[in-house]
Design goal:
Blueprint: E1 18-20, E2 54-56, E3 78-80, E4 84-90, E5 96-101, E6 104-109, E7 115-121, E8 126-135, E9 138-155, H1 157-160, H2 169-174, E10 178-185, E11 202-205, H3 215-228, E12 232-238, H4 250-253, H5 260-271, H6 280-288, H7 290-293, E13 307-310, H8 314-317, E14 325-335, E15 345-349, E16 351-352, E17 354-359, E18 362-367, E19 374-377, E20 385-395, E21 401-402, E22 410-412, E23 418-420, E24 424-432, H9 452-458, E25 468-472, H10 484-499, E26 506-510, E27 513-514, H11 525-539, E28 543-547, E29 552-553, H12 563-577, E30 588-595, E31 598-604, E32 610-612, E33 619-622, E34 628-636, E35 639-643, E36 652-655, E37 665-667, E38 676-677
Parallel strand pairs: 1-2, 3-9, 9-12, 9-25, 10-12, 25-26, 26-28, 27-29
Antiparallel strand pairs: 4-7, 5-6, 5-8, 8-9, 10-11, 13-24, 14-20, 14-24, 15-19, 15-22, 16-21, 17-18, 17-20, 22-23, 30-31, 31-35, 32-37, 33-34, 33-36, 34-35, 36-38
């Protein structure tokens, strides 16, 4: 029996603040790491709700694999206009199912697999309508149904980022009264093979419902509706921290060089009928971790034979000072009776590579994100008198384990009393993982296995009639930014094949700025992935790039200002799909001329000319030696002249080429230019391989 089961995920690419695991049938405590007081999703009964940067797992209500009507259809939904809407579900083989709406009707017979699907002409835009579905011995009515445009909002944590976390959240939520904008948030679910259904419910946007809605999706829908005045449906389908390959079919991923290892592992897990966790580390633990198999986390476990060690350096005493290993630590701590009122927390500092923590047999958290100081909320886990603390550490070698000082390890009680937790613990080696012992493919404790979200969250709605998709993802692929230009077009083609509605619009968020600004010209994964996103938008039909490089947060991968992101996605839709005569793109470099010691750059999407803000370190040039130097820029109409006295004969130019560049070039509509370059020299991530 696996200890960890049933997934609910919300992770982020950089600051993963919460990890919650639980036994298959028991909801346990939430563990909150880090320092972001953010909440993004439905909370748990006895803990603060999780937020961006959190990966949580909890027991889920069983999903009927064969419901009479797929759960993607329900009261308050929006049906796609101007298309034949497909509606489906399951009934006894041979049952004839009839669907009726606004006097129109269609019927279909359930096949041997029990599935039925009708295609029915959508009634006029607006509503509300009632959809009647009857067949066999069952009948369902869907009420308050509108007809308009349905958009799929997908990606990782910045698409998942909720309205409750945005700038001026109380005011924004209070003003969110758009009854003809409806949303369905797909409950997060991983699957190693095709699944039939998703779960969630349709809701109208109101101050009572909007707090947990994707902010980017909401702002996108709001801007679109303000211009086209029809109902908008949002299907929000996103999971934080997830790489692009989790959202693609295995068939599509077989076209990508470098993914052979994880795809083979996925097939092995399928063949073994392994529990569907969605990440590699848990399968590795279940295969090799003796402590997990023997339940060393159980407070009644007899640890008399364990070795007393100093927890800061127990690996040396156990003979694995410099080698990969899994070591378990146990300690009894006596706490006062009564326990001080208030929130208790266990702090461990930073840990390399992965920690897992139990208190009195209850799993309270763990993560593999090294840079986050561990902070586990313990509400409900502690008791007066004797308490048993258990910590499991997966360590890859010398320098790993607890990275801080002994004083970083302490228990903080509700009255702010600090109980030291360093010093002597009992310890035992569980896995000696030195070569040739295999290590996990990767160490993330959130969904990263290829295709698991495509199978669990996308394919089950692949017959849904939609207008298009908006995509905000990439942070989890920055280390492979160059590869992304090959993978993202494949994802778009994969989805278009799944939905079978032609080249539906697909709009991409170019990543905002993040991290500290480099004072010298540089290259990094953020610059590389922005170029990959731009190339995809420029070459894939019916796609568009929403540039956000002038927005962001140097200290957080989750900027709280989401209005520009949603608005710029909406400009793509309004300008490209809906035919509105509006600026929908920032300046785009189309060509350049070599002048004497300078470049002259030509731009499209610059009606009325360009705007250049007075900030340094945006443009850089290089000569044949490929050494980069900052350069000066001057605007002349819809062209820019770039030069520097430091390079006599420049042959290459780059603009805003780093994770946190100064966005200085705009059009008169206030839309920023996308980062670009004139060279084709190898980028820093060009040789990166996923595994």
């Amino acid at each position: 029996m696996s200890f960890f089961r049933s997934i609910r995920t919300q992770a982020l690419m950089q600051k993963r603040d919460l990890v919650l695991f639980h036994p298959r049938k028991t909801i346990l405590a939430i563990a909150i790491l880090g320092f972001l007081p953010i909440s993004l999703s439905a909370g748990f009964a006895q803990q603060p709700p999780p937020g961006p940067g959190f990966f949580s797992r909890r027991s889920a209500a069983p999903i009927n694999p064969f419901p009479f009507v797929s759960p993607i259809f329900g009261d308050n939904m929006v049906l796609q206009r101007n298309k034949a809407d497909k509606i489906w579900g399951w009934s006894e083989p041979g049952d004839v199912v009839r669907v009726e709406i606004d006097g129109k009707h269609a019927s279909a017979k359930a096949g041997a697999d029990r599935r039925w699907e009708v295609s029915i002409e959508a009634p006029p835009v607006g509503g509300p309508y009632t959809v009647k579905i009857t067949g066999g011995k069952q009948a369902v009515e869907l009420h308050n149904v509108l007809v308009g445009d349905v958009w799929l909002a997908t990606g990782q944590s910045n698409m998942e980022f909720s309205m409750r976390e945005v700038l001026n959240a109380p005011e924004e939520i209070k003003a969110a009264n758009y009854p003809t904008i409806r949303f369905f948030t797909v409950r997060q679910h991983v699957a190693y093979q095709q699944t039939n259904v998703v779960s969630g419910q349709w809701q109208a946007v109101s101050p009572e419902t909007t707090a947990r809605l994707s902010a980017v999706a909401y702002y996108f829908a709001r801007r679109v509706q303000q211009n086209i005045h029809i109902p908008i449906g949002l299907v929000v389908d996103c999971v934080g921290g997830t790489p692009v390959e989790t959202w693609m079919s295995a068939a599509a991923l077989h076209k990508v060089s470098g993914l052979e290892v994880p795809l083979a592992e996925l097939q092995t897990l399928i063949d073994e009928k392994a529990p569907e966790d969605g990440f590699y580390i848990q399968h590795w633990y279940e295969k090799y971790d003796t402590g997990l198999k023997e339940k060393w986390f159980d407070p009644t476990f007899n640890d008399a034979s364990w070795k007393p060690v100093d927890i800061m350096n127990g690996w040396s005493a156990l003979g694995v000072a410099d080698t990969p290993s899994v070591v378990w630590y146990r300690k009894e701590v006596t706490l006062p009776d009564p326990l001080p009122a208030g929130r208790s927390m266990l702090l461990l500092g930073e840990v390399d590579r992965m920690d897992s923590v139990w208190v009195n047999g209850r799993f309270v958290g763990g993560t593999s994100w090294v840079e986050n100081p561990r902070r586990y909320f313990l509400r409900g886990a502690l008791k007066p008198g004797k308490n048993v603390f258990v910590i499991r550490i997966l360590r890859l070698g010398a320098g790993g384990g607890f990275l801080g000082k002994p004083s970083d390890l302490h228990l903080e009680l509700g009255n702010q009393t600090s109980v030291p937790m360093a010093g002597e613990w009992k310890a035992k080696l569980s896995v000696d993982a030195r070569p040739p012992h295999p290590l996990p493919i990767s160490y993330e404790s959130w969904p990263v296995i290829p295709s698991v979200l495509y199978n669990g969250m996308l394919e089950p709605i692949g017959s849904l009639s939609i207008t298009g998709a908006v995509w905000y993802q990439g942070e989890s692929n920055v280390r492979r930014g160059y590869e992304y230009r090959k993978v993202l077009p494949l994802l778009i083609a994969d989805w278009r094949e799944l939905f079978k509605q032609g080249n539906f619009p697909f709009y991409i968020v170019s990543l905002p700025f993040n991290g500290q600004r480099s004072p010298t010209p540089t290259d990094d994964g953020w610059a590389d992935i922005r170029e990959s996103q731009a190339i995809t938008a420029a070459t894939v039909p019916d796609s568009c790039l929403a540039v956000t490089v002038d927005t962001g947060d140097a200290n957080s991968v989750h900027p709280s200002e989401k209005i520009p992101v949603g608005d710029r996605l909406a400009y793509c839709a309004l300008g490209q799909h809906y035919g509105r005569k509006i600026p929908y793109s920032g300046p785009t470099m189309t060509s350049y001329d070599h002048l004497s010691g300078a470049f002259r750059l030509h731009f499209s999407h610059a009606p009325g000319g360009l705007v250049l803000k007075d900030q340094p370190h945006a443009f850089q040039v290089a000569g044949a030696d490929q050494k980069w130097y900052w350069a000066d820029a001057h605007v002349f109409g819809d062209t820019v002249i770039v030069s520097t006295s430091l390079v006599a004969n420049p042959i290459a130019l780059r603009y805003d080429w780093q994770s946190n560049p100064p966005a200085v070039l705009f059009n008169k509509a206030g839309l920023p230019a996308s980062p670009f370059r004139t060279d084709d020299w190898p980028l820093v991530t060009a040789g990166a391989r996923p595994y």
